[in-house]
Design a protein that fits this description.
With 460 residues, this protein is an alpha/beta fold. It has three domains: 4-200, 3-Layer(aba) Sandwich (Rossmann fold); 207-310, Elongation Factor Tu (Ef-tu), domain 3 (Beta Barrel), CATH 2.40.30.10; 312-459, Nucleotide-binding domain of ferredoxin-NADP reductase (FNR) module (Rossmann fold), CATH 3.40.50.80. It has 18 helices and 17 strands. The chain has helices at 4-16, 18-28, 33-43, 60-74, 89-94, 115-122, 150-161, 178-188, 194-200, 288-296, 332-345, 359-362, 366-375, 386-393, 399-405, 407-415, 426-441, 443-451; strands spanning 50-55, 79-83, 97-102, 134-141, 165-166, 171-174, 207-216, 226-232, 246-251, 254-262, 272-277, 302-308, 323-328, 350-356, 380-385, 419-424, 455-459. The strands form three sheets. Strands 1, 2, 3, 4, 5 and 6 form a six-stranded parallel beta sheet that branches. A six-stranded antiparallel beta sheet has the order 10-9-12-7-8-11. A five-stranded parallel beta sheet has the order 15-14-13-16-17, with helices on both faces. α3 crosses α4 (60-74). It binds flavin-adenine dinucleotide and flavin mononucleotide (FMN). Flavin-adenine dinucleotide binds at residues 58, 246, 259-262, 275-277, 279, 281-283, 287-291, 330, 333, 458, 460.
């Protein structure tokens, strides 16, 4: 179980990163660029507005909340977009109409964007009375998980237990199913014309990206092979993304479920790069998306991808701060994008703590990391090789152990204003790092960092 303090990161980042959110909207809907920014400004700060509340992990609920707010606003309803974690009992207790868009993460758990709300309100012995509240709820999920839309269902039950009235039955969305989203839009504006509804349906913005390079990063590893992949954009306007963002890849064999990958390069690098581990199923077959990217797809062939803003893992607001970047395995992708962006801006200092199995085979992007250490881009580089440690001292050591060994340095960096970014495995690494940070900094300080958006995660 992840600690509550850790789970604040993405949520509070979203709350703080209003500018980034506007940028995200602009970026996803380039055709309506200036209108979107104007909308976003108009939507904010309306006292008697309907609430559009999002609880998100990787940004989909958040992005849908802004889309939905714009849709309501276009129909003449004033809307205020707010993160669930930013909602207090008083605001909710006074609201008459609210819409909630909530995802589920982990194994039926609340996403980072809901953790504070869960702790402070849903698990409170004295929850607010919500008899005045009429609400709608869109639950995002994936039927492949045992606890489908688990957090959305929990939130729905809780709202009703406090006396709130559903304006319509909860709508569950399996993998962004367009039919469920169309149903949601027509519930928000029952009077909208067929034409308005058709215009509001986002077109699938997947486009063909061309694979131009594929480098095996860990030959001889006992772990799954990891590749650095380079892609050139489809014809048309130059794509725009920020360090911290994701791409989604569509697999023809599994059209219902795009896979997310953390972008490992910046827009200035001239190509979009990913770091992908090839999955192999127990029956020997390759993972659908990772197999396509790392094996089946030939150099020069195209794959359907789309860029996806991840406001909760961008730098936004932390540009001037020292950065502590922590991760393992393919988590290097998101951290590398941030480091490449730091090279471009010359900002620092930067400290990378990175874990893999063996230095001889798994030192991903070694030349680049060592060059950054040598030229000062990395003020500190802590590589932690678990199997080497085991061979040397009989014990597997991970990044969280190194973090504990470096406790004084960590505290000193945080006191100098550092922000902490964690990218990689949700199980094991992210939970272990969370525990170590709590131990080193104390739970209250870690919670405060999360609220200040100085603790952000891209974990999966
Ligand atoms: C926010 C986010 C960021 C991510 N970033 C990265 C990244 O930077 N790099 C990266 O490599 N990955 C990343 N991932 C993971 C990535 O999205 C995929 O989940 C991963 O590549 C596996 O997808 P796949 O289609 O290859 O595997 P799938 O075919 O979906 O298989 C995945 C697992 O499902 C099970 N399974 C599925 N089908 C079968 C079957 N027929 N028989 C038995 N078992 C089966 C197995 O346990 C298998 O290992 C990220 C995920 C998220 C959510
Ligand atoms: C690591 C991980 C765990 C997930 N766990 C669940 C789950 O237990 N139940 C479910 O219905 N969906 C689950 N999902 C699917 C997400 O809820 C779904 O992708 C959602 O659209 C994400 O929205 P967000 O970007 O706003 O967080 C999971 C997704 C990931 C990546």
């Amino acid at each position: 179980m992840l600690s509550e303090a850790l789970r604040w990161a993405a949520a509070s980042a979203s709350v703080a990163a209003y500018g980034a959110l506007c940028a995200g909207i602009w970026w996803r809907e380039r055709a309506r660029a200036s209108a979107a920014a104007a909308d976003a400004a108009a939507l904010a700060g309306q006292g008697d507005a309907v609430l559009m509340v999002h609880a998100s992990q990787t940004g989909q609920a958040e992005s849908l909340a802004w889309d939905s707010a714009r849709w309501l606003h276009a129909g003449g309803t004033p809307v205020r977009v707010v993160a669930l974690n930013a909602l207090d009992a008083t605001t909710l207790g006074q609201a008459r109409q609210a819409y909630f868009i909530a995802s589920t993460y982990g194994e039926g758990d609340a996403p980072d964007g809901a953790s504070v709300f869960v702790e402070r309100l849903m698990e409170s012995p004295t929850p607010p009375t919500l008899k005045q509240l009429s609400y709608g709820l869109l639950a995002l999920g994936d039927r492949e998980y045992a606890n489908y839309c688990g957090f959305g269902r929990r939130l729905d039950d809780w709202l009703q237990a406090q006396g709130a009235q559903p304006a319509f039955p909860r709508i569950d969305v399996d993998n962004g199913a367009p039919s469920a989203l169309a149903q949601w839009r027509s519930r928000l504006r029952p009077d909208a014309s067929e034409q308005d509804l058709a215009d509001a349906s986002p077109s699938p913005d997947f486009a063909p990206w061309r694979l131009v390079s594929r480098e095996h990063l860990n030959p001889g590893s006992d772990g799954g092979p990891v590749f650095l992949l380079g892609f050139m954009p489809p014809p048309g306007p130059d794509p725009v993304w920020e360090a911290g963002d994701l791409v989604q890849v569509v697999v023809a064999a599994d059209p219902g479920r795009p896979r997310d990958y953390s972008i490992a390069s910046t827009v200035h690098d001239g190509e979009l790069q990913l770091i992908v581990r090839q999955e192999r199923h127990p029956d020997g077959s390759l993972g659908a998306a990772s197999g396509l990217l790392t094996s089946t797809l030939a150099l020069g062939d195209t794959v359907a991808m789309r860029l996806r803003p991840h406001p909760g893992f961008r730098l936004s607001g932390n540009e001037e701060r020292p950065l502590i970047l922590i991760g393992n395995g393919t988590g290097l992708a998101g951290l590398r994008a941030h480091l490449r962006a730091r090279v471009a801006t010359g900002k620092g200092p930067n400290w990378l703590l990175f874990g893999e199995r063996r230095a001889a085979h798994d030192f991903l992007c070694r030349a680049e990391l060592e060059a950054w250490r040598a030229d000062g881009t990395l003020a500190r580089l802590d590589m932690v090789f678990s199997r080497d440690a085991e061979a040397a001292q009989g014990e597997r050591l991970y990044v969280q152990h190194r973090l504990l060994q470096q406790a004084d340095e960590m505290v000193a960096w945080v006191e100098r204003g550092a922000a902490i970014y964690v990218c990689g495995s949700l199980q094991g690494m992210a939970a272990g790092v969370d525990g170590a940070l709590r131990q080193v900094l104390g739970p209250d300080r870690l919670a405060a960092l999360a609220v200040e958006a100085r603790y952000r995660r891209d974990v999966y």
